[in-house]
Amino acid sequence: MKLTRLMSLASAVAALALAAGAACAQQVTGTLGSPGATTTIDGRQLPAPDPSFGGTITNDALSSKPWWAPRIVPPKGAPNILLVITDDAGFGVPSTFGGVIPTPTMDRIAANGLRYNNVHSTALCSPTRAALITGRNHHSVGFGVISEQSTGFPGYNSIITRDKATIGRILLENGYSTSWFGKDHNTPSFAASQAGPFDQWPTGMGFEYFYGFVGGDANQWQPNLFRNTTQIYPFEGKPGWNLVTGMADDAIDYLTRLNQTVPDKPFFVMYAPGATHAPHHPTKEWVDKISDMHLFDQGWNKLREQIFANQKKLGVIPQDTQLEPWPTEVIKNWDDLKADEKKLFIRQADIYAAYAAYSDHEIGRVVQAIDDMGKLDNTLVIYINGDNGTSAEGGPLGTPNEVAFFNGVNMMPVDVQMKWYDTWGTEQTYNHMSAGWSWAFDTPFTWFKQNASRLGGIGQNMAVSWPARITDKGGLREQFMHVIDVVPTLLEVTGIPAPDMVDGIKQAPIEGTSFAYTFDKENAKAPTRHKTQYFEMFGQWALYNDGWLLSTKVNRAPWEAFGAANPDPLNNQVLQLYDLSKDFSQSQDIAAQNADKVKEMKDLFLAEAKKYQVFPMDASVAARIVAPRPNITAGRTEFTYTHPMTGLPQGDSPFLLNSSYSIAADINVPEGGAEGMILTSGGRFAGYGFYLLKGKPVFLWNLVDLKRVKWQGSDALTPGKHLVEFDFQYDGLGVGTLAFNNMSGVGGSGTGTLKVDGKVVDTQKMERTLPMILQWDEAFDVGSDTLTGVNDADYTPPFALTAKLNKLTIKVDRPTLSEDDIKKLEDTQAVAVDGSAIHHMQPAPQ
Fold first, then answer.
1. How far apart are CA 838 and CA 846, in angstroms?
2. Measured between alpha carbons, how far is 315 from 321 in angstroms, rounded to an integer?
3. 273-298: burial string, b at 16+ Cβ within 10 Å, e else
4. Does 157 or 744 have the greater pLDDT score?
């Protein structure tokens, strides 16, 4: 019997070794077969195959030998990992790299580790994040643009295919606890509802725990918040609660539970705050702190000069770096502004800076919690400042409502904006600052988020600490890097290989290059190992190759989203050439003197673009937002609801823009009357609501918080059964125009009619409708209203319907194009939606 057991044990060990792929790579602790045994795996096949049973089985338990499969653990010494990435922050934002905004947490990580000044993004948020978690280029994983602009091509469909497992999945299968906090902008907008599928949610991509929001931005006061895949609603926060603190609290709670339950199990935390993406929502405490510092009274020209001087003093840029002249053709000099403009713009910058400082502080609480657990020494902290350059989507004037920008209103006059001056950054605004500050915050580079051909769009920085490994405290690393390099770095330092197979699917190669070699002091000046990298976003592109950078001249500012698109973005370009080994800030164009190099670099870009699914290249921006995509409403024109329902995201709900539609509610009003929300979509910053107000039927359109168009019955509904209807006849051409990459015919006029039991009670014409989106982070709700309401003057959410809803029916009649329409569009590039929309909207009462 003893010999039999030994042979069984030997057989089990051999089976484990076979499953691992190589016995020499296996690290076993304890006695195999015992409940406390652990083992590493080779990791080439995930999940690892179950080992063969290593005990013995006879007819009775007393003479049988139990056997437990060992628990899978990472290789010995594998570090905990805290991966932090902030949002919409350029090179000159943090104090760590010369900025005036205090970021003591990033300072702490840098002082305890290394600073990196040559890190690159994709120029846009979710593409960068897709690259970050997969180690592949953004087009390779379907994120050539954000999901809300996805199109039916492999490089642009916002689907991370199964042959490209995330770092979360790899580490999870190798014994890590994995979690994701904050922003998830990598779930396709058409798969974000409670109907799923959930395979592209964080929990479906290898992150065991998720706490945050799904989408590009979020109201930090009233976020559309999830734990795993369950919406947290009704949302109950303390007075003054803010998600920036809320997610830090949740992360600390999660890490504490792990530490108390399995203190020896390594963790991987993806920490992605919404800051500093619009809306900029800091607490009053932080606004007061920053305002009292008077950082921005000097204006953006002098701020840029101050940041530039700080950067040279800190040594985070070369001493011979040059600063280009202020772009007066794009943004006015500060001294040319009027007094009220300066006042507003200083307020905008104070709020942005407070948001950045507040976020850094809360990140610091998470770092300190890890330190308090005694785990910081063996924790690799990677703190990436920005997923792209600073955003300029507020335009030269900024805006109290970012949703207005996405609907073509991007030059809201200062006197209009001043009505929100005292509430800027509170729950009453969805605010964004002037592009003048964005230009300064991207110092020493130029241009912004979205501009993939300029370092102002793709140039980031980061701080990295790992006390157990990194000894060159405060050192600077200048090697070229890209966010795709993070995954191979994590795999190298954990000793975990990239898998060959995941769930039986052969994996595509990792495309990044590990930068772990830079952790060693002797490699401080080592040549970069990442030699070639392409960039492309909205038809603007660049190629880095061994110090050289070929880039297209910027031909569209980020706030210019509604014009006709470049029809040939590969060739219809002015090409510029830079030698970044001598020109850190990309300021000296030498293309004219190096025609052969320009041709060589373009040919190389073409090869890289073909390799990584960049084609077909598309320069359109707004047109792609309303382009058709496969959501759960695709092909449907009629929708029926018989029960209250909340939380359906915009990307999965009936789309009423640029269409005729009718909404009919069959309800029973109880004795004493009724009120409440029948149907709503969107919220305070753009949306519509169909409700009973003191018994009277109301249909209201909120036009980006500038104007509210309201239809209302004069009489309260009597007790009993009623049919309340709203019918809208649209005058425009619809989204079929988008095949021509222009915006003609959208956002047109229409006539709405409100009826009760077949009788017209109100009718009026809307001269202009919303052309693009409702408020993205608000839901489609039946029977009540989640988060913010579409009209604060009428009700306070949730405003539950007290009548009985028997049946709600929505019918949508989308315009089709006639041959004459098509000919007209082919012959013109007229744009119906632009900043002139402001003249058709008056500020709503505050």
1. 17
2. 11
3. bbbbbbbbbbbeebbebbbebebbee
4. 157
Model confidence pLDDT, tens digit, residues 187-235: 999 999 989 999 999 999 999 999 999 999 999 999 999 999 999 987 6
pTM of the complete model: 0.94
Neighbours of 592 (CB within 10 A): 9
CA-to-CA distance for 129 and 124, rounded, in angstroms?
A: 9
Q: How would DSSP label each residue in 650-715? A: GGGS---TTSEEEEEEEEEEPTT---EEEEEEEETTEEEEEEEETTEEEEEEEETTTEEEEEE-SS
* Region of residue 609 (left: phi > 0; alpha: psi -120 to 50; beta: else): alpha
What is the predicted pLDDT for the residue at 835?
35
Q: Report d(CA 470, CA 516) in Å as an integer.
A: 10
3 state DSSP class of 726: strand
516-527 tens-digit pLDDT: 999 999 999 999
- Pairing of the two strands 71-72 and 38-39: parallel
Task: Using CA atoms of 628, 629, 635, 637 in order, give the dihedral in degrees to the nearest 10.
Answer: -60
Three-state SS across 276-314? CCCCCCCCHHHHHHHHCCCCCCCCHHHHHHHHHHHHHHH
Alpha carbons 452 and 614: distance in angstroms, whole number: 13
3-class SS at 489? helix
- R_g over Cα of the chain: 28
- Of 140-144, 443-447, 634-638, the poorest mean pLDDT is in 634-638
Q: How far apart are CA 497 and CA 415, in angstroms?
A: 58
DSSP class of 408: T
Token pair for residue 373? 């657990």
Give 305-324 pLDDT, tens digit per residue. 999 999 999 999 999 999 99
Tally of residues, the chain: 846
Q: Which amino acid is at 427?
A: E
Name 460's bridge partners: 119
How far apart (Å, rounded) are the C-alpha atoms in residues 613 and 620?
Answer: 17
Q: Map out the domains of the chain with their CATH numbers.
A: 2-72 (no CATH), 80-398+433-528 (3.40.720.10), 638-840 (2.60.120.200)
